[in-house]
Specification:
Chain B: It is found in: Cytoplasm. The complex is a heterodimer of chains A (about 400) and B (about 375). Chain A is of the alpha/beta class and about 400 residues long. Chain A has helices at about 30-50, 70-90, 115-125, 165-175, 180-200, 210-225, 230-235, 270-280, 280-285, 305-315, 320-330, 355-360, 380-385, and strands spanning about 20, 25, 60-65, 95-105, 130-135, 205, 240-245, 250-260. Chain A is built from 13 helices and eight strands. Chain A has a six-stranded mixed sheet with strand order 5-4-3-6-8-7, sandwiched between helices. In chain B, the strands form three sheets. Chain B has a six-stranded mixed sheet. Chain B has a two-stranded antiparallel sheet with strand order 1-2. The chains are: A alpha/beta (about 400), B alpha/beta (about 375).
């Protein structure tokens, strides 16, 4: 065999053709996909153990967030494969998945049926017939009661524009920076997904497609946003605190919690990219993925903190895979603060009541000299995002 | 174009755009707001008590020079009644420290403060030049860092002072927060953001009054106050070695200037959430805070962390084999697991170094451990 084409055999099954690299060993395509699937199934098994309410077989019904990006597309693909497997097994509970895409393009009316997002959703539902799909416009988030809208600079329906997407757009324009817009958008999408999952009694968990890399970037992004207090909730699997507000008065009505899980949390972004390259049909579903662009309301003229972090972690993932996992593991070990106090109207996490008095970093008169009292309903990080 | 007026006094022409929030200020307003903020930090954290004797860790660099100048101004303006002393460490690096010490000596006369210099050679019998000669340029920052922390304490003790202030700024603290997250060091994360380090057990407490001051503002302050400082990087820590955390912070600052302060805030909040809020700290460490432009040291720590778990123990595991010219030591367990457990599990308890009596979490403090290896090498060379 000529030296140039000689490659080491697969470290797992000894197959001659091992084009992939798994951590440090050469791996064949079969073993690679098996590895990805095992990691994913293990997290699903953990999830099932956490959320099941009886020892009898009961259907497992989850809502999955789908942004059309590589990770969430891979998540849908894996969920589809798993549904197939489960349906063949008599001894296992049935599996029902609703994949939801939130269309963040505020420029087109929510009533339109021919948006690019809807075209993509029909691509997905034609391919994955076992799963249900839904496309929801971001403007629907205004009906969501888990956000304290009175704490946000949202123009009222009477302020000259009643159309929800216009109101939202105006709110985004009022936010002080690109980073703020990206941050608030991310939180609103999360709220909307949570709301869809909670509204339908059918479903009992929200699944998000974050990889280890994405979770590490999210952690440090939250650190840079000043939301260190919220990190243990944002990056761990488990029940996320939810507060229901009265839409008219903004008063707190009820407090509950809803499970959010990240089934791809033990996989790196690079591994997901390789996985997708094994199944060209996933990439074919969304041709625009090739250049990594997804639709957002904000312009890409300036970068946001989110992008800086994502880029940083993608660059360190290969040389220092250890630190990517380190970040997720470290922040995951932090305690979740006692959930009895008031919570932040935007990110939903319990407010650190003594935090502001402990904080000596600002004299308070640098900005917002007469800060309106209603804005005190937000945590430090959300205040930064909303007020600058 | 008409000159922009200062947003604070509305009279003078604005000459400074504050890096922190892009406010446009005149020279006087900038200087006074900078000083007011440091005063706020000092009063809100109750850093000093009247009549306290305080040593300022002075390197001659911008941070410590600004710290000395601001503290002198505030001490007079607000009548802190502090007795301020400059304390310098002479690492023994020719072409760098000897020059910067000249700056400190000038500062001492300018600010009318007494100056005390402690040298590595008198404390440890090694100058950094000699250390580098023995072990090479790689990893020498570890030695320098460990030695300096102790040297400051020992210098303070010689002066009978119980409080050392250092010039660590907000960028340094933010960098430490990110570094500790990247290294997965929860214990250090919880104390790295404390304004005062070293607890009741230790003899000398250390604090950082410039903890909330941006590096860029410190440079501006030094510039507008025409302070005399030394701005050369340490010759053993070249620019190329800057840690990735530092560059990440710089790019975040570009995107949103408040990011540095927000990271410090997050760090403080996360400190509240660490499961085991034990504040006891090994004295040879203030939360993983580097002091000079110790990029190389951080870079080294960063690289170590990529093969996780191993960090920290690596240095300590250096076999303390007996050599003829040193005091005999009880043989430490060579069992790596034991030491490993102490870094990942429960925090080590504070004791005293069996050799020098300085507080330490191990039987022998880190400085003595490092000295052991150095002295062993020196013995070899002598033969």
């Amino acid at each position: 065999m000529p030296a140039s084409t000689a490659s080491n055999p697969c470290a797992r099954c000894k197959a001659e053709d091992a084009p992939f690299q798994l951590r440090t060993s050469p791996t064949c395509g079969n073993c690679f996909t098996e590895y990805i699937e095992t990691k994913f199934v293990k997290r699903l098994a953990y999830l099932h153990k956490e959320v099941r309410t009886s020892s009898h077989l009961e259907p497992r019904r989850y809502v999955a967030g789908l942004s059309f990006g590589p990770s969430s597309s891979a998540l849908v693909h894996l969920l589809d494969g798993y549904t197939h497997k489960q349906s063949k097994k008599k001894s296992s509970s049935t599996f029902e998945i609703l994949a939801v895409h939130v269309d963040t393009d505020l420029s087109c009316s929510p009533e339109r049926q021919d948006t690019p997002a809807q075209a993509l959703i029909s691509n997905y539902s034609a391919k994955y017939t076992q799963l249900s799909f839904r496309c929801v416009h971001l403007s629907k988030v205004l009906d969501v009661q888990t956000v304290d809208w009175s704490a946000l600079p949202l123009p009222g329906p009477g302020d000259g524009c009643s159309e929800p997407s216009k109101r939202l757009q105006q709110m985004f324009e009022k936010l002080p920076s690109v980073s703020s817009r990206a941050d608030v958008l991310r939180l609103l999408v999360r709220h909307l997904l949570l709301d869809i999952a909670m509204q339908d009694q059918h479903y009992n968990t929200l699944l998000l497609g974050h990889t280890t890399t994405a979770l590490a970037a999210l952690s440090l992004c939250e650190v840079a946003n000043g939301r260190g207090f919220a990190i243990p909730w944002q990056v761990n699997d488990g029940r996320f605190p939810v507060t229901i507000y009265d839409p008219a008065s903004g008063a707190e009505v009820k407090r509950t919690a809803y499970p959010i899980h990240y089934p791809l949390r033990e996989l790196f972004k690079g591994e997901i990219d390789t996985y997708i390259s094994v199944f060209p049909e996933i990439a074919a579903l969304n041709p625009s993925n090739a250049n990594g662009a997804t639709a957002t309301v904000v312009s890409h003229k300036d970068t946001s903190i989110e992008e800086v972090m994502a880029r940083y972690f993608e660059s360190v993932e290969t040389p220092y895979a250890g630190i990517v996992a380190n970040v997720v593991r470290t922040t995951g070990k932090l305690d979740r603060a006692n959930a009895s106090g008031p919570s932040c109207g935007l990110c939903g996490v319990v407010l650190d009541e003594r935090g502001d008095s402990r904080w000596a970093g600002e004299m308070g008169d640098d900005y917002n000299p007469d800060g309106e009292p209603r804005l005190a309903r937000l945590c430090y990080g959300c205040k930064r995002s909303v007020n600058g | 174009m008409p000159p922009t007026p200062c947003v604070r006094c509305h009279e003078q022409r604005a000459v400074v755009k504050r890096p922190k929030n892009h406010q446009k200020l005149c020279r006087e307003c900038f200087i006074s707001i900078f000083e007011d903020e440091v005063h706020h930090t000092i009063t809100s954290s109750k850093l000093f008590y009247p009549g306290e004797r305080v040593a300022i860790g002075a390197s001659g660099g911008k941070d410590s020079t600004v710290l000395a100048s601001v503290l002198k101004t505030l001490n007079e303006r607000h009548d802190y009644k502090l007795d301020l002393v400059l304390l310098s460490v002479d690492e023994g690096i020719k072409g760098y420290r000897d020059d910067s010490l000249e700056t400190v000596k000038r500062n001492a006369t300018q600010y009318e403060m007494p100056l005390k210099i402690v040298g590595y050679d008198e404390l440890y019998g090694w100058t950094m030049d000699q250390v580098v000669e023995t072990i090479g340029k790689k990893g020498n920052c570890t030695y320098c860092g460990v030695f300096r922390r102790q040297a400051l304490d020992r210098g303070a003790k010689k002066l009978d002072i119980k409080h050392v202030v250092t010039g660590h700024n907000a960028d340094d603290v933010a960098e430490t927060v990110l570094m500790n997250l990247l290294r997965g060091d929860l214990a250090r994360l919880s104390r790295s953001t404390n304004i005062v380090t070293g607890d009741s057990l230790s003899d000398v407490k250390r604090s950082k009054p410039l903890k909330y001051a941006y590096e860029k503002e410190i440079v501006l302050y030094a510039h507008h106050k025409k302070l005399d400082y030394f701005s050369t990087e340490c010759i053993y820590s070249p620019e190329a070695f800057r840690g990735t955390a530092r560059s990440l912070i710089k790019s975040l600052e570009k995107v949103r200037p408040s990011a540095i302060l927000d990271i410090v805030r997050s760090g403080e909040d996360m400190g509240e959430l660490t499961p085991d809020k034990v504040q006891a700290s090994c004295a040879c460490d203030d939360g993983g805070m580097g002091s000079c432009g110790s990029g190389a040291q951080k870079e080294a720590a960063f690289k170590r962390s990529s093969h996780t778990e191993k960090l920290e123990t690596e240095i300590k595991l250096n076999k303390p084999e007996e050599s003829s010219d040193v005091v005999k030591l009880p043989i430490r367990a060579k069992n790596g697991k034991q030491t490993k457990g102490s870094t990942t599990g429960a925090l080590p308890s504070l004791g005293k170094c069996i050799k020098c009596g300085y507080m330490s979490s191990q039987s022998m403090c880190q400085a003595c451990t490092l000295l052991e290896t150095l002295n062993k090498n020196r013995a070899d060379i002598a033969i």
